[in-house]
Amino acid sequence: MSLESTKPVNINYQKIWQTVLCIPKGRVASYGQIADLAGLPGKARLVGRALGFAPKKLNVPWQRVINSQGKISFPIGSEYFDKQKGLLQSEEIVVLNGRIKLKEFQWQPDLTELLFTLQY
DNA sequence: TAAGTGACGGAGG
DNA sequence: GCCTCCGCCACTT
Q1: Methylated-DNA-[protein]-cysteine S-methyltransferase DNA binding domain location, by residue (predicted)?
Q2: Predicted local distance difference test score (pLDDT) of residue A1
Q3: Which residue among A10, A22, A50, A70 has the highest number of C-beta atoms inside a 10 angstrom radius?
Q4: How many structural domains compose chain A?
């Protein structure tokens, strides 16, 4: 029976997790940015979903991914908002009213570095 | 098959 | 800076 290939999109999830793992401590990236780097331009929503499915053992730094406006994508005051804010602040990233200054903290990946890190 | 749903993005007011 | 609307796309019902 067709158990195996149930969901081919999982391959994309792994690309996304790989890319997120490349974000250095103290930096952030937007969902769209991750989608682009993962070879999935325009699929920012997929990134959000992938992070929700990311297994804990992978230790994916999901907190370093925010939306294109530089804001945390959870409602202010929610459990996950507080968790993400706390994690970011522990990396010395400034979070003001759920917002992060992209100008200061956005990750600007080095292409050559990426070529060595990403294996696809 | 169609309609609904989102950890999104961009344009416009 | 904030909000709304619309396009988008994978997934669910």
Answers
A1: 13-92
A2: 47
A3: A50
A4: 1
